[in-house]
Structure formats: C-alpha cells, structure tokens
Design goal:
Blueprint: E1 12-15, E2 25-34, E3 37-46, E4 53-59, H1 67-78, E5 82-86, H2 98-109, H3 112-128, E6 132-142, H4 144-154, E7 161-165, E8 183-189, H5 197-209, E9 214-219, H6 243-260
Parallel strand pairs: 4-5, 4-6, 6-7, 7-8, 8-9
Antiparallel strand pairs: 1-2, 2-3, 3-5
Helix pairs in contact: 3-4
Length: about 260
C-alpha cells in the first residue's frame, strides 16, 4: 500500500483501503485542524477517474464518523465524486451510546458558530484537494449532519448546494438564510417525530423569506434515520430504516447533483 500525500494539503495519517491492485476506490484518514482542535476525516475517491471532479462533503450522524458514513463516502466515490467525511467532534471522539452521542451533538447544537466553524474546516480540506473542482462542491449530511450542512449554507459557504437527509431544520439564526449561495434540498421523513410539522413550516418560511432556491421531499411512512439500516425497523421508536425512502432519497440527491454540477 502506498500513501498519496500530494493529494492533500494536510497529512494523510493512514491508508485504510485499496488492498488489491484491482481496487479503484481509495480511502484515507485525513488529520486536520480547526483552531487548536485536531480532527480526523475520511476521504474516498476513485483512482480510475482522471482529472478534477465534483466534491461532496459528508457530515456524520450524532454518533460521529463510523462505518455508515464511510460506506456513504465510498458509494459517492464510485459515482465519480471526491467524497470527504468531515469530523465535527474531533479526533478520537466517537460516541459509544446514545447518551454520549446526545452529549456531543448538544455541544454544537447549542453553539452554532462552532458547528459552522467545524463544518467549514472540513469543507476547506475538500476544496484544497487537488482532485476536487472547487467550483463544483456540495455538502450533505445525515440527522445531526443534515442540520450541520444547513448551518454551513446559512454561514455563506461557497457550495453549489446542500442536502439534508432526515436532519434537523431549526436554527437560532433564521435571518442568516440570506447568506445562502447555493441550492438546498431537504429529504424528510413525513412521520419524523424529531422534526415535527411546525419545524418544517418554519423552515419553509425561512427559505421563502430569504429567496433561497430550495425544495423539500417528504417520504410517507418514514421516520427519523430512514437511510440507515442500523436504525432497525420499529417505527414506534421514532427512528427506523425505510428501504424505499432510502432508495428514493439517494436518487433525489443524484438528480440534484446533476442540476448543480452542470
């Protein structure tokens, strides 16, 4: 195995995939910083694709970077994107249970500027990657990550678009939507108890008031976490996998990318 440090402005600390000569998707752990905090993201790209290509930053669920977001990064790499899973929590901070996850998520939900700063640091890693076309970058997020990429957009980040999968839509700074430069796609579970109708309506008003190019797709029968098979199948818990909504939402994201990456 061989490291490819020239691909990144920050040092690559490990090459954790591509163990055969036939492998096309390369993956790397990438150490970087936001202020004095050390973060560790996950990069995936297809080495069979030549030249610059669109980049997609992914923000993890409240459990932090793990196998789920890594699989999503690899999935996007196979489609021809440079995918970078940003680390909001910090290197080595990987919650082991819902209580720890809630504690970590609340640090950033209660400090939206810190949330934005951490997301911006990850975006800069992707922007500076030599394989990335900096004019064609999107940010997507799942659950906690969905709310995070919306805050990134509200900060005025230079992204062509953001996609939230079953993410929180609330913000203490609704007027900041005037800073949004790209398009917004929200993929929402129609029965999500953690993102109730009132929050959806407030988000719609926020977007319309600030003339944002936005769309929201609600999937009937879907609750929170509908894209993650590890969420189980019990809707009564408020979090459950929905294969149909997972498939449809991924297709909607791909269609959205086809529009913003022209």
């Amino acid at each position: 195995m061989k490291l490819l440090p020239a691909l990144l402005f920050a040092p690559v600390v490990a090459l954790i995939c591509s163990t055969t000569a036939q492998a096309k998707v390369q993956t790397q752990l990438v150490e970087y910083k936001q202020g004095n905090s050390v973060l560790e993201g996950y990069l995936a790209y297809d080495d069979a694709t030549k030249g610059k290509r669109p980049g997609v930053m992914i923000v993890h669920e409240w459990t932090g970077i793990g196998s789920y977001v890594q699989q999503r990064a690899q999935q996007l790499a196979k489609l021809g994107y440079v995918a970078f899973a940003a680390d909001i929590y910090g290197k080595g901070i990987r919650p082991k249970n819902p209580q720890e996850a809630a504690q970590q998520a609340n640090i950033y939900r209660s400090n939206r500027q810190l949330m934005r700063d951490r997301a911006t640091a990850g975006l800069q890693v992707l922007q500076k990657n030599t394989l990335t076309d900096p004019r064609r970058i999107a940010a997507i997020g799942y659950c906690f990550g969905g709310g995070t990429v919306l805050e990134l957009a509200r900060s005025g980040a230079s992204v062509a678009g953001v996609v939230s999968f079953h993410g929180n839509l609330d913000t203490p700074n609704p007027n900041d939507a005037k800073n949004i430069k790209g398009k917004v796609l929200v993929l929402h579970g129609a029965e999500d108890p953690l993102v109730p109708v009132g929050q959806v309506l407030n988000f719609a008003q926020e977007m319309d008031k600030n003339n944002v190019d936005w769309q929201l797709i609600a999937y009937g029968g879907a609750v929170h976490g509908f894209t993650n098979p590890e969420a189980g199948n019990d809707k009564s818990q408020g979090v459950a996998y929905n294969a149909s909504a997972d498939r449809r939402s991924f297709a909607a994201m791909r269609q959205f990318f086809g529009e913003i990456f022209r």
